[in-house]
Amino acid sequence: MMKYNIVILLLWSFFAASVKLEAQAWSLSEVEIQAKLKLLNKPAVKTIKSKDGDIIDCVSIYKQPAFDHPTLKNHKIQKIPTFFQESQYSSEKHAFKENIEVVQTWQKSGNCPNGTVPIRRILKNDLLRAASLDHHFGLKPPPLFVNSTNTNFSESSSSFTVISENHSGVHIQSTSGSGYIGAQGDINTWNPKVQLAGDSTTAQMWLKSGNGFDFESIEAGWTVNPTLYGNNDTRLFSYWTKDSYKSTGCYDLTCSGFVQTSNVITLGAALIHVSTDSGPQTGFTVKIFLDELGHWWLNVANYNTSIVIGYWPVELFASLQHSASVVQWGGQVISSQLKHRTPHTKTEMGSGHLADGGYGHSCFINSLRVKDYSQMLKYPESTTVAAQEPNCYNFFNDVKDGQEPAFYFGGPGPSCV
Ligand SMILES: *[C@@H]1O[C@H](CO)[C@@H](O)[C@H](O)[C@H]1NC(C)=O
Ligand SMILES: *[C@@H]1O[C@H](CO)[C@@H](O)[C@H](O)[C@H]1NC(C)=O
Ligand SMILES: *[C@@H]1O[C@H](CO)[C@@H](O)[C@H](O)[C@H]1NC(C)=O
Ligand SMILES: *[C@@H]1O[C@H](CO)[C@@H](O)[C@H](O)[C@H]1NC(C)=O
Ligand SMILES: *[C@@H]1O[C@H](CO)[C@@H](O)[C@H](O)[C@H]1NC(C)=O
Ligand SMILES: *[C@@H]1O[C@H](CO)[C@@H](O)[C@H](O)[C@H]1NC(C)=O
């Protein structure tokens, strides 16, 4: 067992190094940039200029980036999931006292016709920003698994010890022996500050399968990520990887893979409403469910309507084809100034408040639900909670008599040493 771990660790270092080289290699000529943009952006049927500077291309649903993926050349697009479960949700009451909504800035400037999907156009500056920081465009920086004798990075879970240099996470996790075929949660929306170039912060849900060093993950929630998107707005995002963030997958539709079906929601576009301290609280429900064909569908809930955004096709994955072994809800800060590096980044997680502030001050995710082969949507039976830097970003799972727990998390960043 020990030997196995060591071999994996060496491979990791190798992959991390090769990705870095690739990033440097394409921070090159104008010709290369234009070629990359042409590959990434598909011809638009209609173009919408959003007031926040984003350009939204309405692209034919059949010409979206997904179909560039080698395993999806002959993929038959699904327009709706092969399950219908809305009845399960409509009677659910949500804990938000105010709005559950996904209203995006660009929607004020137009809409995409039926048969097209709205895609955020990638601009030259987006590529340049990523390249100047040695980031591979559209990818979370690959984690480097390190074993340190003087630091306790353990994320507590048996199967997912993602110990990584430049990531700091807080999450509540549900692990199942038999596997999950769906999960959801109501995510409170905020606009935390991001301090350093290259930093980002999220509040999100993960569904993972595999083991601690070699896993597949599909993710969605909100993020502030100025390196990727060019400003500090709070945006709806999705993410996937089939090799533990090494080289496959990406945010939103910045690479081929995710198949979008919605003509109203844009992955990576800004959300208009965020919560304010002591003020109105807003948020949305994120849902990810497996259908009979093995596709993982991403939905967001707007008031009492569930909007289907699209799906990660079965062809993308190996271990996630039938179920996920772990579901996590929480936040993640990515920065080069974490853990033992001082000064610690001031990039905030959640609302920027530690978890003890309660409703209206700290960010929360509640109405956690998982679905297993029993087909029942239920609060996870057993959960574990973990924070990698509990003095910087912490958690509080608020369990009150007769009520379902609310999971609070976050922090301002620099309060730890
Ligand atoms: C890293 O640490 C863990 C826990 O202490 C141990 O099980 C594992 O073998 C170590 N891996 C390496 C490569 O030293
Ligand atoms: C687009 O599709 C929706 C749902 O199928 C339908 O209600 C609407 O009338 C269609 N709009 C147009 C312009 O065809
Ligand atoms: C590591 O952190 C966990 C959770 O904070 C704690 O329970 C455990 O005792 C720590 N282990 C060590 C070796 O410090
Ligand atoms: C994002 O916020 C940081 C810190 O508050 C600020 O320094 C930076 O200029 C902002 N970036 C943009 C693009 O507005
Ligand atoms: C959604 O909520 C609104 C306002 O509470 C209500 O009028 C409407 O009937 C609901 N729609 C459904 C499909 O439940
Ligand atoms: C983490 O950040 C440091 C400092 O910027 C950088 O040198 C290192 O390569 C990063 N590690 C990974 C795995 O990206």
Task: Describe the structure in your own words.
The chain has 5 helices and 20 strands. It is globular, with a radius of gyration of 20 Å. About 15% of the residues lie in helices and about 30% in strands. It has one domain (about 45-415). One 2-acetamido-2-deoxy-beta-D-glucopyranose (NAG) binds next to loops.
What's this entry about, in short?
It is built from 5 helices and 20 strands. It has helices at residues 2-25, 30-40, 86-90, 124-132, 226-229; strands spanning 46-49, 55-60, 99-100, 116-120, 167-180, 182-188, 200-210, 215-224, 235-241, 250-251, 259-260, 282-290, 296-302, 305-312, 324-334, 363-371, 377-378, 383-387, 394-398, 406-410. Mean pLDDT is 84; it is low at 1-26, 86-91 and 146-161.
- The secondary structure category is alpha+beta
List all distinct small molecules, including ions and cofactors, that are bound in this structure.
2-acetamido-2-deoxy-beta-D-glucopyranose
How far is the N terminus from the C terminus? 34 Å
Low-confidence stretches: 1-26, 86-91, 146-161
Number of strands: 20
Shape: globular
Mean pLDDT: 84
* Biggest sheet descriptor: 10 strands, mixed
Tell me what portion of residues adopts beta-strand conformation: 25-35%
The total number of structural domains is 1
The number of helical runs is 5
Q: Mind telling me the C-alpha Rg?
A: 20 Å
Reading the helices and strands in chain order gives: HHEEHEEHEEEEHEEEEEEEEEEEE
User: In which range does the helix fraction lie?
Assistant: 10-25%
